[in-house]
Fold this protein.
Amino acid sequence: MGKADAITIDFMKKEDLDQVLAIEQASFSAPWSRNLFLSEFRSPRVSNLMVARVDGPVRTVVGFIVFWTVEDEMHILNLAVAPQSRRQGIARKLALTALAHARRKGAKRAFLEVRASNAAAQKLYSGLGFTGMSIRRDYYDSPVEDAVVMTLGQGALESLTRQS
């Protein structure tokens, strides 16, 4: 039984934001602001925010994912796990839960952008069946870097989430 087995995935609450922002700031060179997360809360028909948490007397957030479902598409916008909780299957569990949720909302395919240098994230997504589709030149700031656009097609999304 791994660390991810002791993790519960559920919807983010505004009370989770301080913990989410700490993870965000520890994870990215150009982190999202509190206002950006709050704007996602204001678009519940499109935006979905989920957290990975450890059950206990205090709600402890160890990771999160933010994604949109629009029509028949899912777009993963942001995914991070606290540094001390990485490499334990938590990001995979977050992604799988989000993909299953998006599929139930009608998504037939999924998309995301990832830094070209982020080999760990690309390995995670490739392991889920995502494939590199194209490059977006100079997509990221701080530092300026290309993004790899990855996609998960309809058949792959269905088979990946069938058991969920």
In short: The first strand starts at residue 7 and ends at 11.
